[in-house]
Amino acid sequence: MTSVVILRSPDSAEQKIQQADNDEQLIDLWLHGRPKNTQRGYRSEIDRFIEFVNRPLRSVKLSDLQWFADELGQSLKESSVHRAVNAVKSLLAFGHRLGYLQFDVGRALKLPGFREELSERIISEAEVLKIITLEPSPRNRAMLLTFYAGGFRVSEVCAMKWRHLQVRDATGQITVFAKGGKTRSVLMPKSVWDTLLALRRESSEDGFPEAPVFRSRRKGHLCESAVWRIVKKATKRAEIPKAVSCHWFRHAHASHALDRGAPIHLVQATLGHDSVSTTGKYLHARPSESSGIYLPM
Question: In the annotation, is 237 catalytic?
Answer without folding.
Answer: no
